[in-house]
Design a protein that fits this description.
The complex is a heterodimer of chains A (108) and B (425). By secondary structure, chain A is of the alpha+beta class. Chain A has three helices and five strands, in the order ββαβααββ. Chain B is built from 16 helices and twelve strands. In chain B, the strands form four sheets. In chain B, strands 1-2-8-5-3 form a five-stranded mixed beta sheet. Chain B is globular and about 60 Å long. Classes of the chains: A alpha+beta (108), B alpha+beta (425). Chains A and B meet through α3 of A and α5 of B. The complex binds protoporphyrin IX containing FE and FE2/S2 (inorganic) cluster.
């Protein structure tokens, strides 16, 4: 199991566990973390799973690739930063055990 | 091509047999009458099963491809580099956009490709951010309540005319802080924007042009009044004062403004009507709703799936490509039938059923996906949620007492008349 901590914009924390190989979107949805809807089913097509990767973890996760579908979608999202990613594109493996993800104040 | 005669009282088994007998190559799902009679589902069902990426060589709109399965639609919608929305190539509907007849060509980013689409969408997005719109919630709620309170209980009324149109016009007027007494003009301009001369709204392109110029002047007045008056939370104030949009060329501003009006007009109206129809056809779900009004949160996206207010969006292939094993040539017209994808049992459990507490109610195609995904999707849900909360407060049963009448259109899945009787609590 991989440990993931989601931190809401109001400071509430949601520590969850999820099987290796699944994504941060599933970690949030399976545990009812508020603010992450994931409308498209994780197909990188809706941008309703936007998270801000904690600065301590962004290098392990990797930054948004330029010219990707993910970047095309995130340009319309609110509250994006250099740590923005779509949770459905963050696959959880052992290297990411303990990762901290922030849920932006507004998602759409 | 064979002319099909479908009698209105044909039952669904009979209809399926009939559809099964048509040679595949002759199936043309673009005929507006199939939508008006609501028989289109049987055609899509056969295509999904036997020929999910279907070529129709001859139709009133020329040759076109139909994409009927959920996954294939998703693949086209998310591949904007190959499948273009550009107006000059024909745009976003099976009927090509007319780019020559009218001298007032409104540029709207829904029918643009990257990079222009992205720049414009980015500029307008903050205006419809739900956090901003939440500020308008109390006004929308109060005005919705007033419209509903004025309705006669126990008498037959047309839900579309008395409620759906009124509520939609009211929410639009509120979003734009449009002069209240003149709010019917908003609906008129929305209709005129999408009108094809001779189809009932306007008689000629000149008339359309004149009305749109009048609309432009009117909005110019509102824009000027609201410029340099910070603090307004309506969409015009926001666009007139935000650095991203304040210096927009006027015609661009008008195009974007009308896109916001048009985008939210028919779609919201038909979702309000469709919801009443769906609940009446599924009384067990209506009971569920009465027992637990909190289900409105998941019912709203389910209504939007069930109704599918826009049956399709179209793209034009920019290069040769392949979908579901079929070769699509550069320049060909590709139609994503959202209405079909939303009934695809390989993607959605019991897709024919209306289930207000579905597990993943937002996994539907009604808003499209990818870079053109509906910009107003959360706004639409917000409006519908408020409206349904107010309806549930007042009425135990909005009873459909006659057959609905449907719009003759292959794009807008519209209900034009819905006789109902209201029962108070
Ligand atoms: C239930 C109601 C609604 C439905 C079903 C709906 C559906 C759609 C669809 C199918 C698209 C095109 C997606 C594509 O081409 O892939 C779209 C785009 C759009 N919609 Fe909506 N819509 C609704 C309500 C609204 C509202 C209330 C607004 C007003 C803010 C709005 C504004 C827009 C805009 C601006 C676009 C263009 C987005 C782009 O091209 O990037 N829509 N909508
Ligand atoms: S769930 Fe849709 S983009 Fe991640």
């Amino acid at each position: 199991m991989i440990k993931v901590t989601f931190i809401a914009s109001d400071g509430r924390t949601f520590p969850v566990e999820i099987g290796e190989g699944l994504t941060a979107r599933e970690a949030a949805l399976f545990n009812d973390v508020p603010g992450i809807d994931g409308d498209c089913g994780g197909q990188c097509a809706c941008a309703t799973c936007h998270v801000l990767v904690d600065p301590a973890w962004i290098d392990q996760v990797g930054r948004l690739a330029e010219d990707s579908m993910e970047a095309d979608l995130l340009q319309f999202a609110e509250g994006t930063t250099a740590q923005s990613r779509l949770a459905c594109q963050v696959k959880l493996d052992a290297r990411l055990d303990g990762i901290v993800l922030h849920v932006p104040e507004q998602q759409y | 091509m064979t002319t099909l005669t479908i009698s209105p009282d044909q039952d669904s088994a009979e209809l399926s047999r009939f559809v099964a007998g048509i040679p595949l190559a002759e199936i043309d799902v673009s005929r507006p009458s199939l939508f008006q009679s609501d028989k289109i589902g049987a055609f899509f069902e056969r295509l999904r099963r036997e020929d999910p990426v279907h070529y129709c060589a001859e139709s009133s709109y020329g040759p076109y491809w139909s994409i009927t399965r959920y996954d294939d639609i998703m693949a086209v919608d998310t591949n904007h580099k190959v499948y273009s929305s550009e107006a000059k190539l024909g745009g976003i509907a099976i009927q090509d956009m007319h780019s020559d007849q009218s001298n007032l060509e409104l540029e709207m980013f829904i029918a643009m490709d990257q990079p222009k689409h992205d720049a414009q969408r980015k500029a307008v997005t903050p205006a419809v951010a739900p956090s901003n719109l939440l500020l308008l919630e109390p006004v929308i709620r109060e005005r919705a309540g007033a419209i509903l309170d004025a309705l006669p209980v126990g008498e037959e009324i047309d839900w579309v005319k008395s409620v759906s149109v009124e509520l939609t016009t009211m929410t639009l007027a509120t979003l734009f802080d449009f002069p209240w007494d003149e709010r019917a003009r908003l609906t008129r301009w929305s209709d005129v924007t999408t009108a094809i001369p001779g189809a009932g709204i306007v008689d000629s392109f000149e008339q359309r042009r004149e009305e749109l110029i009048e609309c432009a002047m009117y909005f110019k007045g509102l824009w000027d009044q609201r410029t340099d008056q910070p603090g307004g939370t309506d969409l015009i104030s926001m666009m007139a004062n935000s650095p991203a949009t304040r210096d927009m060329p006027f015609l661009e501003f008008l195009g974007n403004l009308l896109l916001l009006i048009v985008g939210g007009n028919d779609t919201t109206r038909n979702s309000i009507s469709g919801g009443v129809l769906a609940l009446n056809r599924h009384p067990d779900q209506y009971d569920k709703l009465r027992r637990d009004p909190a289900l409105i949160g998941s019912m709203v996206p389910e209504i939007i799936r069930w109704q599918t207010p826009l049956t399709h969006m179209r793209r034009t292939a920019l290069e040769d490509s392949e979908i579901g094993g079929k070769r699509i040539a550069k320049g060909e017209k590709v139609v994503m039938w959202y209405l079909s994808g939303n009934r695809d049992e390989t993607a959605i459990e019991q897709p024919e059923e209306f289930i207000i507490d579905r597990k993943n109610p937002r996994q539907h195609l009604s808003f499209g996906y990818g870079i053109h995904r509906c910009m107003g999707n959360r706004l639409a849900e917000l409006q519908l949620r408020i409206i349904w909360e107010e309806i549930q407060k007042r009425f135990h049963f909005v009873e459909v007492v006659g057959e609905p009448e449907r719009l003759l259109s292959n794009l807008v899945r519209g209900i034009t008349r819905l006789p109902v009787k209201l029962h108070a609590h």
